[in-house]
Amino acid sequence: MEASTAEQLKRQAAASALEYVQSGMILGLGTGSTVVHFLDLLGDRIRTGELKNVVGVPTSNRTTSEASQAGIDLIELGDSSRIDLTVDGADEISPDLDLIKGMGGALLREKMVAQSSDRVLIIADDSKAVSRLGTLSPLPIEVIDWGIRGHVQFILNWEGEASVRMRNDGEPFKSDNGNLMLDCRFSDGINEPAQLEAELQARAGVVESGLFLNVADLAILGTHTGPKKVDRKS
Ligand code: 5RP
Q1: Please, which residues have CB within 8 angstroms of residue 30's CB and are 6 or more apart in sequence?
Q2: In sequence order, which residues have a C-beta less than 8 Å from that of residue 205 and are 6 or more positions away?
Q3: Domain range for residue 201?
Q4: How far does residue 68's CA lie from ligand 1's centre (Å)?
Q5: What is the pLDDT of residues 55-97, one digit of tens each?
Q6: Phi, psi (rounded to 5 degrees) for 44
Q7: Which residues are identified as catalytic?
Q8: Closest Cα to residue 179, out of 121, 127, 102?
Q9: Which of 48, 67, 130, 136 is the most buried (most CB within 10 A)?
């Protein structure tokens, strides 16, 4: 048997997530290449009539456009008091289902949508599973541009290195909200994620961090032997 590619594993996780979607649901729609598979498969189910009256709340301009192309009706965050289920990707997933998110640049809206959701389901290929946060992916932090060097120094004090994310054309990357993204690398991972998150939340000028602690309820990892479901323990 041929080994599955990362895209096949992402699609496997996305297909498995559809089991949790029912007609009439309001769905938070995350951002990224794994979510694209989910949007595609969800669009198919809506087109065939297997799922009816499903409405999405997109977390980025990219997802707005991809979901519209897939034929998914969209509303904005706040148009409904609650979201039944959010399906999103992640850059790292710890055994306790703590996450690093934001390499796709959408972490602020993703966190806002997740916080308004009854359930948050993360889909990914199994390469995203880590034993310690910060060992595989940089930690993205969305910041306003004024005073950015203070945040770089703050991350240095945490024994990390922060750099402004750049686009391929050499210009700084800007989020959908017009902010900069600092990508923070830690040579040995993040020592105390909860403490770092608390300090980041207390810093003026930090818009949002890519640490998603106690946010995910369930993760589905695409693996070579089939989808692996990881539930939050507590
Ligand atoms: C976007 C995100 C994405 O969910 C994360 O980057 C994973 O993306 P992909 O599915 O392409 O690996 O947090 O802000």
Answers
A1: 59, 63, 86, 87, 88, 89, 106, 110, 113
A2: 143, 144, 146, 147, 148, 150, 151
A3: 139-208
A4: 19
A5: 999 999 999 999 999 999 999 999 999 999 999 999 999 999 9
A6: -60, -45
A7: 110
A8: 102
A9: 67
Which of 35, 59, 103 to mutate to test ligand 1, by most ligand atoms within 8 A of the CB atom? 103
Please tell me the predicted confidence (pLDDT) of residue 2: 62
Give the helix ranges, DSSP H, for 60-162.
Answer: 61-69, 107-115, 148-157
The number of distinct structural domains making up the chain is 2
CATH number at residue 114: 3.40.50.1360
pLDDT at 194: 98
In the chain, the N- to C-terminal Cα span, in Å, equals 38
Cβ of residue 34 lying under 6 Å from some atom of ligand 1: yes
Query: Is there a single domain that holds both residue 163 and residue 112?
Result: no
Separation of CA 68 from chain center? 19
Please, which residues have CB within 8 angstroms of residue 78's CB and are 6 or more apart in sequence?
none
